[in-house]
Amino acid sequence: MHDNNWIFGYNYNSPGNNNGCLLHFEHGYPEFSVVDVKHDFGLYCIICSDSTGNLLFHTNGRQIRNRLHNVMEGGDTINPGPIWSDYPNDYPSLGSGLSIPAPGLKNNYYVIHTSNSYDFSIPYPILYYSLIDMNQNGGLGKVISKNIILAEGDIYSPVIIKHGNGRD
User: 0.70 exceeded by the pTM?
Assistant: First the structure.
Protein backbone atom coordinates (compact mmCIF):
# COMPACT_ATOMS: atom_id res chain seq x y z
CA MET A 1 0.00 0.00 0.00
CA HIS A 2 2.99 2.30 -0.51
CA ASP A 3 1.07 4.00 -3.35
CA ASN A 4 -2.18 4.38 -1.38
CA ASN A 5 -2.18 8.18 -1.45
CA TRP A 6 -2.03 10.58 -4.37
CA ILE A 7 -1.79 14.34 -3.91
CA PHE A 8 -2.84 17.00 -6.40
CA GLY A 9 -2.45 20.75 -6.15
CA TYR A 10 -0.91 23.74 -7.86
CA ASN A 11 -0.60 27.51 -7.65
CA TYR A 12 -0.31 27.44 -3.88
CA ASN A 13 0.60 31.12 -3.81
CA SER A 14 -2.52 32.19 -5.71
CA PRO A 15 -5.14 33.96 -3.56
CA GLY A 16 -7.88 31.60 -2.39
CA ASN A 17 -6.10 28.50 -3.71
CA ASN A 18 -4.17 27.23 -0.71
CA ASN A 19 -5.45 23.68 -0.82
CA GLY A 20 -4.70 20.51 -2.65
CA CYS A 21 -6.56 17.26 -2.95
CA LEU A 22 -5.64 13.93 -1.38
CA LEU A 23 -6.86 10.90 -3.30
CA HIS A 24 -6.81 7.91 -0.94
CA PHE A 25 -7.53 4.25 -1.78
CA GLU A 26 -7.85 2.70 1.69
CA HIS A 27 -11.24 1.08 1.08
CA GLY A 28 -10.53 -0.07 -2.47
CA TYR A 29 -12.14 2.90 -4.15
CA PRO A 30 -10.98 6.52 -4.47
CA GLU A 31 -11.84 8.87 -1.61
CA PHE A 32 -11.12 12.59 -1.94
CA SER A 33 -10.30 15.08 0.78
CA VAL A 34 -9.02 18.65 0.76
CA VAL A 35 -5.52 19.10 2.22
CA ASP A 36 -3.29 22.12 2.66
CA VAL A 37 -0.20 20.81 0.84
CA LYS A 38 1.62 24.15 1.19
CA HIS A 39 3.45 23.86 -2.14
CA ASP A 40 2.79 23.48 -5.85
CA PHE A 41 2.68 20.22 -7.75
CA GLY A 42 3.20 21.30 -11.34
CA LEU A 43 4.75 18.40 -13.18
CA TYR A 44 6.89 16.73 -10.51
CA CYS A 45 5.45 14.54 -7.78
CA ILE A 46 6.71 11.68 -5.63
CA ILE A 47 4.50 10.41 -2.79
CA CYS A 48 5.17 7.62 -0.30
CA SER A 49 2.89 5.79 2.10
CA ASP A 50 3.87 3.09 4.59
CA SER A 51 2.95 -0.58 4.15
CA THR A 52 -0.46 0.02 5.74
CA GLY A 53 -1.30 2.97 3.48
CA ASN A 54 -0.58 5.92 5.81
CA LEU A 55 0.88 8.96 4.07
CA LEU A 56 4.56 9.46 5.02
CA PHE A 57 6.01 12.14 2.75
CA HIS A 58 5.88 13.80 -0.65
CA THR A 59 7.96 16.06 -2.86
CA ASN A 60 7.41 18.43 -5.74
CA GLY A 61 11.08 18.17 -6.77
CA ARG A 62 12.20 21.11 -4.64
CA GLN A 63 11.57 19.96 -1.06
CA ILE A 64 10.61 16.78 0.74
CA ARG A 65 7.61 17.33 3.01
CA ASN A 66 6.27 15.15 5.81
CA ARG A 67 2.71 13.90 6.29
CA LEU A 68 1.78 17.26 7.84
CA HIS A 69 2.95 18.91 4.59
CA ASN A 70 5.81 20.77 6.31
CA VAL A 71 9.39 20.66 5.03
CA MET A 72 11.00 17.59 6.56
CA GLU A 73 14.23 18.13 8.49
CA GLY A 74 16.97 18.05 5.85
CA GLY A 75 14.35 18.01 3.09
CA ASP A 76 15.08 21.41 1.61
CA THR A 77 16.88 21.88 -1.71
CA ILE A 78 16.61 18.57 -3.51
CA ASN A 79 17.62 18.60 -7.19
CA PRO A 80 19.96 21.59 -6.77
CA GLY A 81 21.05 23.65 -9.76
CA PRO A 82 19.83 26.32 -12.17
CA ILE A 83 16.35 24.83 -12.63
CA TRP A 84 15.86 24.70 -8.85
CA SER A 85 16.95 28.34 -8.59
CA ASP A 86 14.89 29.59 -11.53
CA TYR A 87 11.59 27.94 -10.56
CA PRO A 88 10.75 28.86 -6.95
CA ASN A 89 7.31 27.22 -6.78
CA ASP A 90 7.61 23.80 -8.39
CA TYR A 91 10.20 21.80 -10.28
CA PRO A 92 9.42 21.61 -14.02
CA SER A 93 10.04 18.12 -15.29
CA LEU A 94 8.01 15.57 -17.20
CA GLY A 95 9.58 12.79 -15.13
CA SER A 96 9.85 12.64 -11.40
CA GLY A 97 11.14 9.59 -9.66
CA LEU A 98 9.97 7.15 -7.07
CA SER A 99 10.23 6.13 -3.45
CA ILE A 100 10.87 2.66 -2.10
CA PRO A 101 11.46 1.09 1.31
CA ALA A 102 15.20 0.79 2.00
CA PRO A 103 16.06 -2.92 2.11
CA GLY A 104 17.27 -3.94 5.56
CA LEU A 105 16.60 -0.51 7.13
CA LYS A 106 13.35 -0.48 9.13
CA ASN A 107 11.22 2.62 8.44
CA ASN A 108 13.78 4.05 6.00
CA TYR A 109 12.94 4.98 2.42
CA TYR A 110 14.93 5.85 -0.65
CA VAL A 111 13.71 8.65 -2.85
CA ILE A 112 15.14 8.20 -6.35
CA HIS A 113 14.82 11.55 -8.11
CA THR A 114 15.78 13.06 -11.43
CA SER A 115 17.24 16.47 -12.13
CA ASN A 116 16.53 18.66 -15.11
CA SER A 117 18.65 21.07 -17.15
CA TYR A 118 18.34 23.63 -19.90
CA ASP A 119 20.04 21.19 -22.30
CA PHE A 120 16.88 19.70 -23.79
CA SER A 121 18.83 17.08 -25.76
CA ILE A 122 19.38 15.15 -22.51
CA PRO A 123 16.16 14.03 -20.77
CA TYR A 124 17.60 14.01 -17.24
CA PRO A 125 21.32 14.60 -16.73
CA ILE A 126 21.53 13.36 -13.13
CA LEU A 127 19.81 10.57 -11.22
CA TYR A 128 19.99 11.16 -7.46
CA TYR A 129 18.93 9.36 -4.34
CA SER A 130 18.06 10.68 -0.92
CA LEU A 131 17.52 8.53 2.18
CA ILE A 132 14.75 9.25 4.68
CA ASP A 133 14.63 7.84 8.21
CA MET A 134 11.01 7.89 9.38
CA ASN A 135 12.07 6.92 12.92
CA GLN A 136 13.27 10.51 13.44
CA ASN A 137 11.32 13.53 14.75
CA GLY A 138 8.50 11.55 16.33
CA GLY A 139 7.68 9.76 13.08
CA LEU A 140 7.74 12.88 10.88
CA GLY A 141 11.07 11.75 9.41
CA LYS A 142 14.43 13.23 8.58
CA VAL A 143 16.39 13.26 5.34
CA ILE A 144 19.70 11.72 6.43
CA SER A 145 21.39 11.64 2.99
CA LYS A 146 20.45 14.01 0.19
CA ASN A 147 21.23 14.44 -3.52
CA ILE A 148 23.64 11.51 -3.74
CA ILE A 149 24.46 10.93 -7.41
CA LEU A 150 23.52 7.47 -8.71
CA ALA A 151 24.24 8.13 -12.38
CA GLU A 152 25.00 10.96 -14.78
CA GLY A 153 24.41 11.22 -18.52
CA ASP A 154 21.46 10.64 -20.80
CA ILE A 155 19.01 9.23 -18.23
CA TYR A 156 15.31 8.55 -18.50
CA SER A 157 12.81 8.62 -15.66
CA PRO A 158 13.33 5.60 -13.39
CA VAL A 159 10.83 2.81 -12.87
CA ILE A 160 10.75 -0.01 -10.35
CA ILE A 161 9.28 -3.49 -10.53
CA LYS A 162 8.78 -5.84 -7.61
CA HIS A 163 10.15 -9.31 -8.25
CA GLY A 164 7.67 -12.13 -8.80
CA ASN A 165 8.85 -13.83 -5.59
CA GLY A 166 7.14 -11.03 -3.60
CA ARG A 167 10.17 -10.01 -1.53
CA ASP A 168 12.88 -8.72 -3.90
Answer: yes
